């Protein structure tokens, strides 16, 4: 749940150099991991790695959007969060369809490639999640960044487990199961972000009474 009087709603927090620096580092890490995972996913035949690569791409775009709206009015930050939520949900839908296609036509992926790249991606996402942890209770824009990072770390653990499953069973089903899980996480996270963004848009367009102005951070 969003807190409209959280400390992270303050202008100085939104323009905090630590917030901007964390976003820039996250942007670089996610952009690099997208390139690595999309190549590894295609060459290794892993739908889970390809799904995770698309997630890295979506997150890199989301961090870039977040950097663009830092310090803007809450209505603009909420609009950006709405766009990010919709993107995350669409990526989840794409992964779900890709997993279904793979179930009908897919070959057994390379477990070794999945394992090595999955561990590297997990390390990258844990670093990003730790950096962004302090901002997890902010507005919809800040919270969307935290949700993306959290989902990525969970997804990477699942990719590593899928690699072990593929290796042990010599079957594509663990890979497809993880791709489906990541799709569900994407859909769920996207809807969470859009729900909070809608609430903030409604509150942002509500005019304050002219006879009485309550302090922004006075009460919870």
Automatic annotation (TrEMBL):
Q: Where are the transmembrane segments?
A: 22-40, 60-76, 88-107, 113-133, 153-170, 176-194
Specify the superkingdom. Bacteria
Where is the protein found, in the record's own terms?
Answer: Membrane
UniProt-listed InterPro entries = Cation_efflux_TM, Cation_efflux_TMD_sf, CDF/SLC30A
Entry-linked Pfam families: Cation_efflux (PF01545)
Please give, as recorded in its UniProt entry, the membrane topology of this protein.
Answer: Multi-pass membrane protein
Q: Which GO terms describe its cellular component?
A: plasma membrane
MF terms (GO), sorted A to Z: zinc ion transmembrane transporter activity
Question: Which SUPFAM superfamilies does the UniProt entry name for this protein?
Answer: Cation efflux protein transmembrane domain-like
Using the UniProt record, give the first listed, main subcellular location: membrane
Q: Which Gene3D superfamilies match?
A: Cation efflux protein transmembrane domain
Q: Where is the Cation efflux protein transmembrane domain?
A: 23-201
Key words, A-Z: Ion transport, Membrane, Transmembrane, Transmembrane helix, Transport, Zinc, Zinc transport
Return the protein name: Cation transporter
Please give the organism.
Answer: Sphingomonas aliaeris
